[in-house]
Fold this protein.
Amino acid sequence: MRKKVVACLLAAIMTLGAVGCSSDTSTNTTSPKEESTEEAPAESESEESAANTVRGTGTGLKIGLAVQTLSNQIWAQQAEAIQKRAKEDGNEVTVVDCKENANTQIDQIENFISSDVDAIIVNPVDADAIEEACKEAREAGIMVVSWDEEMTNADINWLIDNYDLGCGIGSAAAEWINETFENGECEVVVLGYPQTPILKQREDGILDKLAEIAPNATVVANQPAIDTTEGLNAMETILQSHPDVKVVCCIGGGGAAGSNEAFKGFYGSEYPKNVGIFSTDLTDETISSMQNDEFNKLCVAITGNAYVCGDTIYQLLIDKETGVEMDKNVYRELIPVTIDNLEEMIP
């Protein structure tokens, strides 16, 4: 995959070719001139074979995977899926978690460069901050796949239209509000994550569609929550001040899982039908909540469940490695999931 490796292999092949010619003299009855003529194509074929072991086979690769945080179940499960597929293919994946710190993520990318990996998949905390590190990686011959952010210094950008995703969540919640409550009047909570620009775009889409389609609904709280713990803590606190909250819109599956647990603690064994959570990321918790008729009403799945997502981004890397033509920006499918089509979306 790397020029310096290819150069070394080619040099080795040339040396082996010369040794092969001299050893064949004792067993081959052809003249030296004929022998030399026959050996030339074989050497060319060896060069091609050696180059393919470096690039184009999709096996024997060292892959670095840098995610924002493994405390978010969707990323953890996607990482698990990537590692599983890689192992099956004879590749090796090293997963690192920067705990949402851009400087740490830069250090991790630089460590991958030093470790001589063949490819890096990065889920950026701050795309602008890691551009230079990713540039260094590509200059070293390392493929870079950006997960969820459009970057200049990437070979593939695996993208979501995050505002549209937020609009899908907000529209579904707003329509349900109008169907469920008289005059569309109810209290709503939004669990966003404005620290990350793409997640702020989702939050903006949610808020815009709530205001447009359910103008009589009132957003009584807007708190950050990226994982289950943050979602649970936020909702438990909000319910103390706003016990009449009936709808929660979340920018991710972590907030949805925490909200579901908070509502279960708040209501006990009785699950009111007029309380709903609308989110994205088809996590195990969301699936279970829908199946058990708890509080998750709709999830806008991105590509599919977490394992499908991990499998998809891994396959993109392998396709690029083996020479498949593709656009630099690859957009992901957004799929609204309710209990009605849930079985189609899970393994």
